[in-house]
Design brief:
- The protein is α/β, with parallel strands linked by helices.
- It contains 13 helices and 14 strands.
- Strands 1, 2, 3, 4, 5, 6, 7, 8, 10, 12, 13 and 14 form a twelve-stranded mixed β-sheet that branches. A two-stranded antiparallel ribbon has the order 9-11.
- The chain is globular and about 55 Å long.
């Protein structure tokens, strides 16, 4: 693999090159300026015997070169533009014949044994379509990675509650199903507490896309990830489609991965508009009766955020301006968003404007 001088190729023309792993499963990573994290993510996946495929979304750091230098056996595509997370995953899936696909963020470390456990669990449980590990942050603190499908209530609590309404309070609005998932995320493996799920598998609505093991035949039936989501909500969408197709979605609390977050970008001008557009798209597709109410909530939150950012300008000009621009973009986006605009046919990732890096 020549990470510094990849040769042109048709991204969707056929299988990506790369050393086949003895686990007969494939791990997919999508990178964007991920040089700080990607080697820590890739190394344990290779040790687990996985075939690793990376699609880079036009990084401006040395992510692609680093992959070529450290992991010549890894197959990679270097896109000349950022096609979005879902579209990049679908690029990697082209020609993949393994029965299990792991989608892993470049800022997520899935230990070798954990990777094998996820693959083994899927193969041992035919009714399960998607399985994910318990996530912890960089300091080892539990991260809530299992959720109920979003509703107007959950949006109001999350967008306006923030730190004022702690997660333990917000989880109560999800009922026993939400509480079981929450407890499975936060209780350390091996801890048995009466009335909780303990360390056993827990059926959930949806799991964070930071680390998922997915049946390939399920991805074939859903048409891959929904490319109408540039980033965010493609995981919730996939899990919803899995349930509709009769497949279970399961959290394995006894299996842990570390997700540090911020592996691609923390710039609110970039992140926040995509988050809210994806939220609106999800509700336009699946919660049409409450779409206008959610749109109003988002608009009010953006106006409030813009006002607070303007106040913050004097004390913190750089941060305040970034937030002001982000919220202003969200105001414009929300004011003009319509269900038909949000749910229209997605533009697929083009093979033009990309390179394949091969060994």
């Amino acid at each position: 693999m020549t990470g510094t001088s990849p040769r042109p190729a048709d991204d969707r023309a056929g299988p990506m090159a790369g050393r086949p792993g003895d686990l007969a499963a494939t791990a997919v990573l999508v990178t964007h300026n991920s040089a700080r994290h990607v080697t820590d993510a890739v190394a344990p996946l290779l040790r687990a015997g996985l075939t690793v495929r990376v699609v880079d979304n036009n990084s401006t750091d040395h992510t692609v070169a680093l992959l070529g230098e450290r992991f010549p056996e890894v197959a990679a595509i270097a896109n000349r533009r950022n096609v979005g997370f879902a579209a990049a995953v679908n690029q990697a899936l082209a020609g993949c014949v393994d029965d299990v696909v792991l989608v892993v963020n470049p800022d997520c470390v899935l230990p070798t044994a954990a990777a094998r456990e996820l693959v083994g669990f899927l193969r041992a449980h035919p009714a399960v379509g998607i399985v994910g590990p318990r996530l912890v942050d960089g300091d080892g603190r539990p991260a809530i990675s299992a959720h109920p499908f979003e509703t107007l209530t959950s949006v109001v609590l999350s967008r306006f509650g923030g730190t004022l309404v702690p997660v333990p309070v917000r989880r109560l609005f999800g009922g026993p199903h939400r509480r079981a998932a929450y407890d499975a995320c936060r209780i350390p493996p091996g801890t048995l507490i009466p009335g909780t799920a303990g360390a056993g598998p827990v059926s959930v609505d949806w799991l964070s896309g930071a680390c998922l093991a997915i049946r390939r035949d399920l991805l074939d039936r859903t048409g891959g990830l929904d490319e109408g989501y540039f980033m965010y909500y493609e995981d919730e969408e996939l899990c919803l489609q899995a349930h509709r197709l009769g497949a279970d979605v399961v959290l394995l609390p006894a299996v842990t991965a570390r997700h540090t977050g911020g592996g691609s970008s923390a710039d609110p001008r970039w992140i926040w508009p995509h988050l809210y557009r994806s939220m609106l798209r999800f509700f336009a597709r699946h919660r049409r009766s409450t779409y206008q109410a959610v749109r109003l909530v988002v608009l009010l939150r953006a106006l409030l955020g813009a006002g607070l950012a303007a106040v913050r300008l004097a004390a913190s000009p750089h941060s305040g301006m970034a937030r002001l621009r982000a919220w202003s973009t969200i105001v414009r986006l929300t004011a003009t968003a319509t269900p038909s605009l949000l749910t229209g046919a997605a533009t697929p990732a083009s093979a033009e404007g990309s390179h394949r890096c091969t060994s």
